Amino acid sequence: MLISYKTILDNAFKDGYAVGAFNCLSLENVIGVIKAAEKLNSPVILQLAEVQFPYSPMELMAPIFLEAAKRSKVPVAVHLDHGQSFETCARAISLGFNSVMFDGASLPYEDNIAITSQVVKMAKAADVDVEAELGKVGDTTEVLTNKPNEMNDDIFTNVEQSADFIEKTGIDALAIAIGNLHGNYIATPKLNIKRLAEIREKNNLPLVLHGGSGTSEEDFKSCVHNGIAKINVATAMQMAVAKKIKDYVNNNEKNNYIDMKWLMIEASEETAEYHIRLFESQGKA
Ligand code: 13P
Fold first, then answer.
1. CA 132/CA 134 separation, integer angstroms
2. pLDDT at 153 over 80
3. 81 given a catalytic annotation
4. Is any ligand 1 atom within 6 A of the Cβ of residue 112?
5. pTM for this structure?
6. Residue minimizing CA distance to atom 1 of ligand 1
7. Which of 47, 110, 237, 275 has the CB geometry, 3.0–4.6 Å to 271, for a possible disulfide?
């Protein structure tokens, strides 16, 4: 069933678990993620980021996400990940996404507040929820070392600013930067859980962890128990699908496309299942 992002996150935040938000680039990803969520009786979020539009156009993916959500036995929200402008968020809302992220993290602070507030105003009029980001998550191609203690503190979410930002924008969830990065880590990161706990202490709002792939199980658990109510996973599923296909092609002569489709579904399901169990949302549907 299609359920609001806010309802799904508020429940997770209240009960101390996190919901997996999986970037789905294909029908196979969607089918696999929903299968895992239904098997584990867990809420889940299907999402697509603006940088992914060139090969997974939002206009084509939206009806698939929405239909999959409506047919599902478990609560599913359909979310725009990393919307880069007010206009993209408006387009997602008109296509039926029931939550959007406006990512103004690289903008000057006041501009991030101004545009996020405009997105919130537009979204709330359409009964759509909003996530925004404060601090710089970045990606692994930009950062040569992934050790948070060697990172410049400025890129982490500022505790005082987080309260000001939440109050001024009226968002439903805040994505934070605590040493997490998008993409493949060079080495397993050590997240700044102390900073997370301080942000959690200061604010009574669900928090979001981006860059979930490659995080240690220990850090995932600390996040889940310190106010992170949504964890984004993209790279891990892409890698799992690619590996299954590579193994199939290397070990099979027939190269049957239908077999490959099943393998893509299977890899997507396995990735989602692994993360849903770690995030403790199993049985919470
Ligand atoms: P990963 O690709 O590192 O899992 O990050 C996913 C993400 O945060 C999407 O917004």
1. 7
2. no
3. yes
4. no
5. 0.95
6. 211
7. 237
> Model confidence over 27-41: pLDDT tens digits?
999 999 999 999 999
Question: How remote is the CA of residue 251 from the centroid of ligand 1, in Å?
Answer: 30
Q: CA triplet 96, 97, 99: central angle to 5 degrees?
A: 140
Please, are residues 19 and 282 in contact by the beta-carbon 8 Å criterion? Answer: no
Cα of 138 vs centre of ligand 1, distance in Å, is: 10
DSSP assignment of 98-119? SEEEE--TTS-HHHHHHHHHHH
Residue 19 falls in which region: left (phi positive, over 0), alpha (psi -120 to 50) or beta: beta
Tens digit of pLDDT for each residue in 120-141? Answer: 999 999 999 999 999 977 666 5
Q: What is the largest CA-CA distance in the chain?
A: 60
Vertex 215 angle, CA 61 and 155, to 5°: 85
Q: In angstroms, rounded to a whole number, what is the distance separating the alpha carbons of residues 91 and 94?
A: 5
* pLDDT tens per residue across span 17-29: 999 999 999 999 9
* Ligand 1 in reach of 206 Cβ (< 6 A): no
Closest CA to 153 of 117, 115, 198: 198
Beta strands in 119-203 (DSSP E): 129-134, 173-176
> Per the structure block, which two tokens stand in for 189?
């990161």
Does any ligand 1 atom lie closer than 6 A to the CB of residue 234? yes
Residue 140 CA: nearest ligand 1 atom is 3
Distance in angstroms (rounded) separating the CA atoms of residues 211 and 25 = 16
3-state helix, strand, coil split of the chain in percent (to 5) is 50, 15, 35
Strands 173-176 and 76-83, by their bridges, are unpaired
**Residue 23 token pair:** 């970037």
Task: Sort 186 into a burial class: Cβ within 10 Å, 0-12 / 13-18 / 19+.
Answer: middle
